[in-house]
Amino acid sequence: MSILPSVDVVVIGAGAAGGIVAEQLSLAGLHVVLLERGRRQSFGETGHDELRSQRTTVLGNAFGPDDERYVREVAASTSGGQFRRVLPSEGEYNNIAACVGGGTMSYGAMAWRYMESDFRMRSTYGALPGSTLEDWPIAYQDLEPYYTKAEWEIGVSGQAGANPFEPARSKPYPMPPLPYNHEATLLDAAARRLGFHPFPIPMAINSVPYQGRAACIQCPHCVGFACEVDAKNSTAVTVIPRALGTKHCQLRTAAIAKRIVTNDRGNAVAVEYFQDRQLFVQKCRAVVVSCSATESPRLLFNSATKLFPQGLGNRNDWMGRNLQGHAYCGATGLFEQEVFDGLGPAARISCCDFNHGLPDGLKGGGLMANEFIRLPYLFSRNDLPPGIPRWGKAHKEFVRKYYKRAIGVKSAIQEMPVFESRVQLAPDLTDAWGIPTLRLSGHRHPHDIEVGRFVAAKCEMWLKEAGAVKTWTSLPGSGLSGGQHQAGTCRMGNDPKTSVVDRYCRIHDIDNVYVVDGSVHVNNGGFNPSLTIQAIAYWAAAKMVRDLKKAI
Amino acid sequence: MEMDRRAFLLLAASPLYAGPLVLLSAGEAKLVDALTNQIIPADDAPGASEAGVVFYIDKQLAGPLKRFRPTYARCIPLLQAACRNTSGREFQNLSFDEQADFLRQIEHGPDRELSSFFSLVIEHTMQGFYGSPEHGGNRDEASWKMLDIVDVMGGHQH
Fold it and tell me: Model pTM?
């Protein structure tokens, strides 16, 4: 065991949020150690391999975590009962990438702001039985400057004002949107005929050279892959290099956090982590946990002491609960003519007409957008209309005829948080370092499926209007959600009895431990969450800088 | 043993033979190859057999898909036994249409173990046929040529 001299802050997890916090603190002159369980990865290492991409993971996760050292268990059914082991490359593991940059290294890079109502769900819609639906303790207006900061610091291309449902913004996007592809051109006209309000999807992808990096070359290997030209704006190519440039931040990779060490007054004094099987104790004045909505609560559970017998931040049994992601739904349409032009990222057009304001008491909703390019293996599995067999001559003929004649329009439906959907420590299961791992259990709220049905029908209508000769919908399932949009397990709130962190992401009854990632989301909006995670990281970091500088 | 040797010689003599098997026995490989040939048959474009998908499955069962090894080891003889029970013959000795009929029975039949094994082979066949040639299948980019996306996919060499 090696004890390392104290630094100001240890940030655990170099992903969407951790990279930003490390950068902001080190720019302010604080000394930071940034721990990352994965490695630095480059395009050359992962390439264009569909079977290992973050979208399929059938031959393992190109960006980690790996099947050799990590394991979890999941409830065999929504009613609980038996648990079974799952590996990171299996869908039910609910993996999120483990590398420098985290999920942002291989994400699709949609960069959405949540809407005002997304922060006021309880006030907007009232209570829903079976759900812990609540307002956030912060409003869109609080986060707006930090959304703007994220868009400019990380780099987002988009068209301000093109989405009539977007809340007020203080600044335009720093880059114009990527051009429409063939699909988007077809869908744009169709949406306007239907009275929808289509606009280019905001993306954390360079449409023009930005911050010394290249513009997107529109290759098809985008979502699920590292970018060949670093035009995709992960934290690995933006804020983390800037943090290291301050000389105040050390990045330590392949560093597996074991627990946060607290003293008898209940404050954090160090983080224990493994590197090359050796245990290190990094002393510090504060800790930021940015490990994802599954791994952050795991670390906090594993940091239990006499003072915090159920884990840090878990006095009232709210930690690990309300695990949510999005209820994906949508429609696929087949066309007589070819609609595929091979240009990435392909997801180019969206409508927010059904994010809120749905009829029949439906709460929330979700964006609609055309799908990222489906590479051939995924197409062969996921885009079959009813009646086409899964194998044989008819299957092959379908794939052959329609691979270039199909468009998907998908939605990420905002989920109603469910208290029973949760992560806990597994009683008898550890990872390769002997650290207790997670068990996942719960179910999706049935309301999400009803909203999914409504929005999927709108997606189908859109495709029909665009000329699809055959269409069909896909609806959310009833099982546990989470996935790469995982959120909610360390809820932000004003009342310590019903939340884990305060409005600045600090754990309620601990002075110097913060959770900064999707865990703090009270709900997850009807949008991909990365830009919101990043806006919150800037918001929380600004407060941390004020507090920590004062304490020096 | 004798059976395996004969099957191996047959396989080795066929144009399918692309290299030594690393995990499957020759007899197992012959059956898996016949299954893949049903899952993605040849027409005027190559099918899974011509694209060497059995070598994808063999190679990956010795690697990232090793958790499925016991399933293959257990279910290949079970599938052959079910085939002999139904038809009195080995699967490979049935005509193409007889094989398809038998697999449809398995797919929808009461034996959950065999139907889920067949689902697994369907998955693995799609991966081997449509995925990158570097993993042992999709020989000569057969599926990408069929879909006319060789140019689009041309980043696999990285």
Answer: 0.95
